[in-house]
Design a protein that fits this description.
This protein has 21 helices and 24 strands. It is α+β, with helices and mostly antiparallel strands. The protein folds into two domains: 342 residues, Periplasmic binding protein-like II (D-Maltodextrin-Binding Protein, domain 2, 3-Layer(aba) Sandwich); 250 residues, Roll (Dipeptide-binding Protein, domain 3), CATH 3.10.105.10. The chain has a six-stranded mixed sheet, with helices on both faces. It starts with a helix and ends with a strand. Bound molecules: alpha-D-galactopyranose. Alpha-D-galactopyranose (GLA) binds next to loops.
Amino acid sequence: MTKPFRRAALAALLLGVSAVAVQAEMMAPTAPPEAPKFDAQGEPIYVNRADIYEFKALPAYSEPAWVKAFVDAGKLPPVAERLPKEPLVYKTANMPDGNGVYGDVMRHVIGGRPEGWNFWAGQSYGWGGIDIGLVECLTRTGPLFQVNAADLQPLPNLARSWEWAADGKSLTVHLIEGAKWSDGDPFDTEDIDFYWNDIVMDPDATPLMGASQETYGAGTTLDIIDAYTFKMNFQTAFPESVLYAMAYGNFCPGPAHVLKPAHPKYGGKDYQSFHDAFPADMMNFPTMGAWAVVEHRPDDIVVTRRNAYYWKVDEAGQQLPYLDEVHFRLSTWGDRDVQAVAGTGDFSNLEQPENFVESLKKAAEEASPARLAFGPRSIGYQLFFNLSGNGWGEPDARGQAVRELNRSLDFRKAVTYAIDRQRIGDSLVKGPFTSQYAGGLLTSTSYYDAGSTVFYPFSTESAKEALAAAGLTDSDGNGFVNLAGGDDLNVTLLTNADYATDKNIAEGVVAMMADVGVKVTLNSLGGKDYDNARESGKHDWYIRRNDQEFVSVVQGVNRLAPTGPAISTWHYANAAGELDLLPYEQQMVDAIAAFNGTQDAAVRGDAMKAYQKTFTENVNAVGLTAYPGALIINKRFANIPAGAPIFMYNWAEDNIIRERVYVPADKQIGAELHPGELPGKLGEATVKAE
Ligand code: GLA
């Protein structure tokens, strides 16, 4: 007999009615409802990883004529000396439109704001593809949407190759040799050493996307072998997830030559001054990315210019990127859609359904400057419960009472039964876009299995029944259930204020919870404040647009459950480092370990089925809605890969491989703000050839 059934039976006995009658009121879970049919527009052309690029020397290299003028003026070494011995070479056959030509600008619009350039101390650049363009990582996963399933593994990048020891307990990684930062300083294991020892392993350093030792597996260590080789040592054999943890978000080393002197271990004053050492108005922060920041006008624009030391080329030997400049207009996420369809911006991930109909209408017009293509249903929202019962986020008595309720299955069931997912979806957009999301893995991952997905249908009666089973009744008759002490239960729901969609979904949840007698108060915070509140446990519940792990599984798999003290944002350890996992959470952790512990595809599939069953049956989070997003991109750009999803292993800003995107000469719009200029020295102005 399951615990909730026992409780219901007991409640029924006390009330003097039959247990069967009470059970009849709580609806049985069902299979998840079929999603409305909505075909992705444009299928990827599937290839193997080696078809996209390789590392090799070419007989000769070239660069834009205006960059060559710097060389001629003695201001820049020749291109062959700026490139690595064997640069990363994009294969022409994999380029949708072939080798490109130089020039022009991509005009992004973003809703975030750069806080400063110390990503490794937790500063956000403002998202929307700005950080993706500035930090390069050891491996790369964005373009994997077009890779054959049989060859699915991260692409090399700054790590050009790697090999496992025979027992799988260590991995030797070879860096690209002779690549340089945008200021000409060599990229080598000094950068790896600093990232590992002084960021990841330093408990006082807080990198932006939270990488810690657990990200690479508990107990993992790293040894530097020589200038271009290092070795990682693991507690388990063949932890393939490490290769994904080396992709965007985590193992993206910073320039040790400028970061180190500001770090407390090497003479920097303290961690706060390390954090603040590279403010948003400091230009030319060294990057391994294709463009470096040369101008920032607060609340207006960030301008980035081509990195003359970029280490990637095409098969003709042309140094990449093709685009000389990339803009990030500092506006709102909603405005990104509006500007992209209007042609004043060039790119948008159409991800807020409130804008779907208008954008579709505009893009369908003959004269539309932009093309719009929907991809898979990879955007999903869930409501998460703070599941720490032992003090994470230091709750007061009210907060602690909510935490204890969150840890009760009856209570979580009450919440899921209370949610009318159809209504939530329809409130965002009518039509075949949104689907009722059971929670956990999204239908767009190959690991999704409907048979392992438990769906609690919308039923206010069942919700009320589950509340009673959790011991909550409306003792003062004011329409809201009360805590044992007498006060109304009042739950704070943390949401992201930067997106209309988050706000609309959250308001729907508040209304639906009120309908079953649970008072919910919104705490709507913008950008970094939202992330900080979430990551510090200062919340009862939060609503969140899914990260990669729920869409791809492999990218960020360790975040799918509390596999470490600070890894899945609904349940961190308390200040003493104790993680009070519920038994079902432990089962999810075990499923992730089983997934990571084998390379056998069938066993991995089964592990994910077990994970999904445990997640959804126990309402680890409440799935709210899932829908497809569309990539909107100006028609003048060439080399946009077919079927690029806005979100899968990474965001489209990575998926479309921007350094390979170009604009044919007759379509260039002449929108450069710094023509003829290259990034200069850190903190100084740009430079010109003469
Ligand atoms: C934000 C946007 C996404 C995407 C990412 C890239 O989260 O909402 O569409 O641009 O930034 O990091």
